[in-house]
Design a protein that fits this description.
mainly alpha, Methane Monooxygenase Hydroxylase, Chain G, domain 1, 6 helices, disordered C terminus
Length: 229
C-alpha cells in the first residue's frame, strides 16, 4: 500500500511538471499572438519580428513536451482518468504550436502591409483579433481549472468567430473590387482574418481536450444546439 501511494505521488509530481511546461509554452504563444495583433494595429514591425523570433523556441518546447509526455506514460503506465489527463496535456502543445504558426503567418503579412500606406480597413480586424485572443486565454483557463463547462462553451463561441471571418472577408473583397490598386493589401487582410479564425479552431480543440480529460467524453464533431439540455 505504501509503495502504491509512493508511485501515485511520483506520477502526480511528474504530471504537474508536464502541465507546468505546457503552460510556459502557452504563455509564450499568448505573447506572440498579442504582439502581432498590436503590430497590426500599430504598424509596428518590431513586434512582428518578436513573434517570428519566438517561433523556434515554441517549436522546441513542443518537441520536449512530446518527449516528456511519452516518458511519463512509459514510466508509470497510467490508465483511465490518469491516462486521459496525460494525453489531454500532451495534446495542448500541437494546438499551441499551430497558433504560434498562425501568429507568424500574420506577422509576415503585417510586415508587407507596413511597407505601404495604412489601409483604414485594418480596423475591421481589431474585434476579430481580440475575440480570438480571448478564446485562447479562456481555453487555457479551462485547462488550468479543469473547467468542463468552459471547455464545452468554446465550440459555440467558435461559430461566432467563423461568422466574423466570413463577414470581414466579404467586406474586404467588396472594397477590393472598388479599389483594385489596393488588391494585394486587401488580400493580405483577408488572409490575416483567416488565420485568426484558425486560432479560434485551435482554442476550441483545447476546450474539447479539457472535456475529454475531465468527463471522459469526446465532443469533437458533435453538433450543438442552444435548445439542447
Amino acid at each position: 500500500m505504501t509503495q502504491a501511494k509512493h508511485i501515485l505521488s511520483d506520477f502526480d509530481a511528474a504530471l504537474a511538471v508536464l502541465r507546468r511546461d505546457v503552460l510556459r509554452m502557452a504563455e509564450l504563444v499568448d505573447h506572440s499572438l498579442e504582439h502581432v495583433l498590436r503590430g497590426l494595429q500599430e504598424r509596428n514591425d518590431d513586434l512582428c519580428l518578436k513573434t517570428i523570433a519566438d517561433d523556434d523556441e515554441i517549436n522546441q518546447m513542443e518537441k520536449q513536451i512530446d518527449r516528456d509526455g511519452m516518458e511519463l506514460i512509459v514510466r508509470f503506465q497510467p490508465v483511465a482518468s490518469d491516462l486521459r489527463r496525460v494525453v489531454a496535456t500532451m495534446k495542448l502543445s500541437p494546438n499551441l504550436e499551430r497558433i504560434a504558426d498562425e501568429s507568424v503567418s500574420i506577422a509576415r503579412k503585417v510586415r508587407k502591409l507596413n511597407q505601404h500606406p495604412r489601409l483604414a480597413e485594418v480596423g475591421l480586424l481589431e474585434a476579430m483579433g481580440k475575440y480570438a485572443l480571448q478564446m485562447l486565454r479562456d481555453s487555457l483557463a479551462a485547462f488550468v481549472k479543469d473547467d468542463e463547462v468552459s471547455g464545452r462553451a468554446l465550440k459555440e463561441r467558435d461559430k461566432a468567430l467563423d461568422a466574423m471571418n466570413k463577414q470581414t472577408a466579404r467586406e474586404l473583397l467588396a472594397r477590393a473590387a472598388h479599389d483594385p490598386k489596393q488588391l494585394r493589401g486587401y488580400l493580405n487582410l483577408v488572409l490575416i482574418a483567416a488565420s485568426l479564425e484558425r486560432v479560434g479552431d485551435h482554442a476550441t480543440n483545447i476546450g474539447e481536450d479539457v472535456v475529454y480529460a475531465v468527463a471522459a467524453e469526446d465532443i469533437r464533431h458533435q453538433r450543438f444546439s442552444p435548445l439542447e439540455s
